[in-house]
Amino acid sequence: MTPSAPSPVDPSLAHRVAHATVTVRGADGAPLADTEVTVAQVGHRFAFGNIGFDLIPLANGETSGPVESVFGGAAPDQGEHLAALWLDVFTTATLPFYWAGFEPQRGRPDTERLLRTARWFQERGVTVKGHPLAWHTLAPDWLRELPTAEVAEVLRARIRREVGDFAGVIDTWDAINEVVIMPDFVNEEHENAITRLCREQGRVPTVRLAFEEARATNPSATLLLNDFDLSADYERLVEAVLEAGIQVDALGLQTHMHQGYWGEEKMLAMVDRFARFGLPLHLTETTLLSGDLMPPEIVDLNDYQVPSWPSTPAGEERQAEEIVRHYRSLLSHPSVQAITYWGLTDDGAWLGAPAGLVRRDGSPKPAYEALRRLVKEEWWLPATTLRTDAEGRVRVSGFLGDYSVAADGAAADLALDAAGQSSAEVRLRR
């Protein structure tokens, strides 16, 4: 394949904004001349995501009892409060399909609970993503007892089942996760079956298995290759996967910054390295800490274990400043299509780190407020009254996304889909 040239960054975010002349017509099709109309943004085209783990109990009517999640989460009685905070900023929810937790006993998957949660988000206008279909970490223990050939067939069946059961509700998946390390992953207690499968058949055939089973089950699904290893090893894997003819819809890039914010220069240089493949880039797992940073000498973040890791006032101010810098810089790169922050609250945060945007008591941190100001104020067109000209036209400028146009009790939907969009037409209906 011939990689495309990196896309130039634009801090003005002009590539995220449309300036369109909109012709407004009434129910009879005639232009509404010299009429006041109200235009308001109702959604972003860019995917501002977060995990939805904390809201699984709420979506299932669970208001008390233990938190049932592989990585923990907020107490069920905080559900309504956290849901309001979540829905006020984020538009894409990632739900957990870690195989060991989703199907701890073979043949007994937690389908209904996750399906109710996915529908809960969908009913509120949120796009839902599943994470992940194939991964060596948190593979179920019962899989370990099977011969490798059977592991492959059971994995195929697992992918078909999940993609099929959730089609129409979840149509975006991390098809396979962390393949760079997959065949070399070492567990001191025992080797998991997915690592064994990947070692025996190779990385590219394992990626092919995951993508082709998911694609065959839901041809319209958006499938990601996702990894935390952002080195040249991942670039070589992407090259090999694409050269093998495997259709990848987007590349997932994890950025858990437990040792401190990387800074704009390093982050954008990394994005440029992967933008050359010409695929949309999803920053799938982003964290910034609001407490003490992990020491820089730690190589494997999982090795850092402390009894308490609190959020601090100084750390919260730093996190708020860094989250603004992080989102501004990433949106300046045209290849970046989505950013998923990895955690709303500190409860159940990965490694126990103070990475959430909401404190354990449910109060928003400064980083939450800072991100909300970007998403719902600076990058948002509030309800604005405009007057059409003699031909029923108004000029609308706003971030790419969905809008409503209303006048005299009638309304219509307006989509601003591309920065080069120069015109649009809507027809109001009561």
From TrEMBL:
<keyword id="KW-0119">Carbohydrate metabolism</keyword>
<feature type="domain" description="GH10">
    <location>
        <begin position="61"/>
        <end position="374"/>
    </location>
</feature>
<keyword id="KW-0624">Polysaccharide degradation</keyword>
<comment type="similarity">
    <text>Belongs to the glycosyl hydrolase 10 (cellulase F) family.</text>
</comment>
<protein>
    <recommendedName>
        <fullName>Beta-xylanase</fullName>
        <ecNumber>3.2.1.8</ecNumber>
    </recommendedName>
</protein>
<keyword id="KW-0858">Xylan degradation</keyword>
<dbReference type="InterPro" id="IPR044846">
    <property type="entry name" value="GH10"/>
</dbReference>
<dbReference type="InterPro" id="IPR017853">
    <property type="entry name" value="GH"/>
</dbReference>
<keyword id="KW-0326">Glycosidase</keyword>
<dbReference type="InterPro" id="IPR001000">
    <property type="entry name" value="GH10_dom"/>
</dbReference>
<keyword id="KW-0378">Hydrolase</keyword>
<dbReference type="Pfam" id="PF00331">
    <property type="entry name" value="Glyco_hydro_10"/>
</dbReference>
<keyword id="KW-0732">Signal</keyword>
